[in-house]
Write a structure and sequence with these properties.
Layout: H1 14-30, H2 40-57, H3 80-93, H4 95-114, H5 117-129, E1 134-137, E2 153-157, E3 160-171, E4 178-184, E5 201-207, E6 213-219, E7 227-238, E8 242-243, H6 249-285, E9 287-288, E10 291-292, H7 297-325, H8 331-356, H9 366-375, H10 384-395
Parallel strand pairs: 1-4
Antiparallel strand pairs: 2-3, 3-7, 4-5, 5-8, 6-7, 9-10
Helix pairs in contact: 1-3, 2-4, 3-4, 3-6, 4-5, 4-6, 6-7, 6-8, 6-9, 7-8, 8-9, 8-10
Amino acid sequence: MDAAHPLAWPFFAPEHRELAGRVQAWAAQHLAVPPATEDAAALAASCRALARALGEAGWTRHSIADPGAPADSLGARFDVRTLALIRETLARHDALADFVFAMQGLGSGPISLAGSPELRARYLPKVARGEAIAAFALSEPNAGSDVAALECRAQRTDDGYRLDGEKTWISNGGIADFYCVFARTSEPQRRADGSVSAEGISAFVVDADTPGLEVAERIEPISPHPLARLRFTDCRVASAQRLGAHGEGFKLAMRTLDVFRTTVAAAALGLAQSAFDAALAQVTARQMFGRKLADFQLTQAALADMASELDAARLLTYRAAWLRDRGESAVKEVAMAKMTATETAQRVIDRAVQLFGGRGVARGERVERLYRDIRALRIYEGATEVQKLIIGRELLRPSRGR
């Protein structure tokens, strides 16, 4: 985000605008060359290098809690506006850098929110410095948006828990140093309408070298980032590795996602702004039929739509982050921001590809990369369809009004 952008004034303090300028200067210097992603080894090395660079620059410390601070239930230690500003700026320069930053926060978020003092001291400083890679292991083959359908089990033993089951679509899978894993610790209760209760799920920190944990499959998404399916077989975890109270894992997962979901919208803005910048440069330079492409009214109309939709999505995103930082309930507003920003970014980037013509679909072109980068944001941390359900549910709550 441009630190002087008028849209920032109602929602950001001077220190946020100053931070935005510093992040922008750092990203312009350090993210000018796309990282290597040609194979799994190069991708893993790039992610570790980016984690270290983000840690050394001091950006990652904003995505974790103070290891010495007491855990709380609101995530008030997280300044969501700061996280949003950093993610938007990183995404505007390089999608993988944004991914690495985001996963350091999301992957360690459950420790920040509910970890014991010992767990916070053991893991969070290393994450902040970029010395350890974190991962958030929630999704399963049969449990994505429907978290209550989790099948991975954590059975009590004399000295802890035994984990058995699978996790899939796990970002940083295969390169993470530890995973925050959510598993069922009691049988699910079926409600009268046939749905399954989300109670009885607990969370654990599982080190990557724990016996019984293996990477069952590496998944290659259309936008390069490490993704894998994990398998747990008689995987023993000490009770001290549990996050929060026994059976409170679902609430912890939702609290973690609630902190970071607004930042997904911000990342989408960064990707869309990058596409808009590229499109603007393209149409003002490209000659067609003896005129610049920018001279055609259809081009101007496309640019008008792109700019207007971007500003509208920004307002929703900034408002959601501002409300979260004020400690107000913002479930509906966060869902609106996530849905609108990601869907808007998809349309803006698609128009940019169209304005580039044949070049727009050539592998390696900036807008072609962005076209692949944006697609997953409409799915992860709550698909667009789920956001619509959340918005509708909140609108129908008597206390919310209209």
